[in-house]
Amino acid sequence: MTAYGPGEPRAPAVEAAAGIARLEGYLLAHRVRTEATEAGAVFADRFPWLGPRERSEIAREFAREHLAVRRRMLRDAAARADGLRREYGDRYARLRRRLLAVALGAAGATTAVVSLVVRSTG
Fold it and tell me: Which of 9, 29, 62, 94 could form a disulfide bond with 40, CB atoms 3.0-4.6 angstroms apart?
């Protein structure tokens, strides 16, 4: 097994999940490259007056630009997801603190009321 952290072996389930994630990433990247190549060929076919070499170059450049756009979109989406994760994490932490404060306040008030009732009856 490979080391997960300093001296920590990874569990087989973690290894399997990591391997599946890598495989999914590879398959997704392969599909995106194939789509870019196909889109480049379709784009280049719009220019029937170009020779085969020129069409091939146009198709390659289109595919390269298509991949660059997809990378930027993926980076932007990942950055947005990180931002949302932080934002909602902060909101959740504030909500937990408020809930704890209300619960402690209610417990304190209940204790005070019970204490007053016990004193007045005793």
Answer: 62
**With contact defined as beta carbons under 8 Å apart, do 40 and 60 qualify?**
yes
6: which residues sit within 8 A by CB, 6+ positions away? none
Which phi and psi angles does 3 have, rounded to 5°?
-80, 135
pTM over 0.85: no
Q: Which of 95, 10, 119, 45 is nearest to 111 (CA)?
A: 119
Q: 61-80, pLDDT tens digit by residue?
A: 999 999 999 999 999 999 99
Report the pLDDT value the prediction gives residue 7, as an integer from 0 to 100: 60
By the 8 A CB rule, do 42 and 58 touch? Answer: no
